[in-house]
Amino acid sequence: MSVRDNVVLGLDGLVRRRATPAHEREMVRTALSLLGMEDLEIERLAGSLSLAGRQKVSIARSLMRPWRLLILDESTSALDIEDRDRLFELLRKFRDEGRSILFVSHRMDEIENIADRTTVLRSGLSVATLDCASCSSEMLLDLMSARKAGRAEPVSGKRNSCGRDGRPALEVRGFSLRTGADHLDLDVHPGEILGVGGLEGHGQEAFLEYVAGCRSGPSGRIRAGDAVIRSERDAARAGIAFLPRDRKTEGIIAPLSGLDNVTISALRRGARWGLVRARQRAGLADEICRQTKVKMASPGASISSLSGGNQQKVLLGRLIATRPRVLVLNDPLRGVDQGAKIDLYNVLEGLANDGVSILLLSTELMELCRLCHRVVVFHDHAVSAVMESEGINERVLIDAMFGRTSPLRAFEGAVE
User: Fold this and answer.
1) Which of 86, 6, 103 is nearest to 54 (CA)?
2) I need a surface site. Which of 73, 88, 243, 311 has the fewest CB within 10 A?
3) What pLDDT was estimated at residue 405?
4) Which of 10-14, 17-21, 92-96, 184-188: highest mean pLDDT?
């Protein structure tokens, strides 16, 4: 749809339009001009805009109706400093007019810049509400962290050791996500769980996609064994398996059964002369489902009928069926209930014990503390820190996510 259609979406009545086309175009241009987009062609397709442009179109849509309370959820995640400051100036104007704004952000500098009061939420509960004039970033960071010191124990009660004497399963050399950023040199060893963390949109997802061959980096080289990873085909041949973040749109194949979804990436294991043998495929599915503890009424049941946790187990099982050397997992435990999480924790630990290297991106700090031998933290599309397990706790991770940790101090030699 066009920019104009996106901005006026929801304004019309069920049967008739509430504004003439000319008046509609005028309202759209007025809303866009508030965000510095007065020169934008409003009949242009919204999908052709940059991520920041699409973000501003979404904000403009929210300004079209008369409102008393405006809720902005991570509205600045795709905006540059100039666009963000323009938005903040607009929000202050609205506030001075007597309107209310609920501004959700993980960025401490934005909260200090724009908020009059701040409520901290943790694990679905309100921890505190403070006047910004009487609180500091340090206080907010303490409230965001479940504990100020110490570190969580792994699920099994003891962390498996990871030898680093042999040849690494994955080598990253001279890598950076943007021009001018520090270069990352990193080895991931067999049996190691390497955590990947950061605030939303700070480059950690792009790093996983580079490792999985889904995109090429601006600089550096990624090698798995003797193979240099330049494409998804290179990654697959080198034994790298990738789990995307959105299981509904990028993971499950909704029209197919659980059996089909588990085995679709490993059909060669049950095939002879190019023909898939049903008995062998069913045996493979049973083996994988037992390993990942998938619960479904029957192998032929639609994948869409399973719970979110069981769908995620199926997707992880699909990767396991390919017998990977390296697993690249983008937030695999998102939206999964606690029981399924424990099952998946144990599966990941078991894979690591069997020598599989795992890159685990998680938005849950506790998971990074529990499961990982090391954690790479990204801030502003650069590596903020690479931390060893002995020094990992939630507060340290939060500090690094906000760019408060020197990468050279966190892991000397990891970042040039």
Assistant:
1) 6
2) 73
3) 62
4) 92-96
CATH topology of domain 3-103: Rossmann fold (3.40.50)
Is 72's pLDDT higher than 80? yes
Nearest CA-CA partner of 87 in 49, 37, 40, 45: 37
Read out DSSP for 251-292?
I--TTSBHHHHHHGGGGGGGEETTEE-HHHHHHHHHHHHHHH
Q: What is the rounded CA–CA span in Å between residue 216 and residue 237?
A: 17
Strands 240-243 and 326-330: parallel
- Tell me phi and psi for residue 211, to 5 degrees: -60, -40
Which of 146, 135, 196 lies closest to 170 in space, CA to CA? 196
Task: Please give the pLDDT value at position 158.
Answer: 40
Tell me: pLDDT of 410 over 60: no
The C-alpha atoms of residue 57 and residue 64 are separated, in whole angstroms, by 11
How long a stretch of residues is the chain? 416
pTM higher than 0.90: no
Phi, psi for 238 (deg, rounded to 5): -85, 0
**Residue 366 vs residue 35, higher pLDDT:** 35
Q: Is it the case that residue 94 has pLDDT exceeding 70? A: yes
What is the Cα–Cα distance from 186 to 415, expressed in whole angstroms?
8
State which H helix or E strand residue 327 sits in: strand 326-330
Q: Locate CATH 3.40.50.300 in the chain.
A: 3-103, 150-239+324-416
Report the candidate in 98, 100, 118 with the shortest Cα–Cα distance to residue 110: 118
Task: For Cα atoms 247, 356, 224, give the angle at the middle one, nearest 5 degrees.
Answer: 90
**Contact indicator for 12, 20 with CB cutoff of 8 Å:** no
Query: Would you state the pLDDT for residue 408?
Result: 40
Q: Which amino acid would we find at residue 55?
A: Q
Is residue 190 very low, low, confident or very high in pLDDT (cuts 50, 70, 90)?
very high
Amino acid 111 reads I
Beta strands 357-361 and 193-198 are parallel
pLDDT value at residue 263: 73
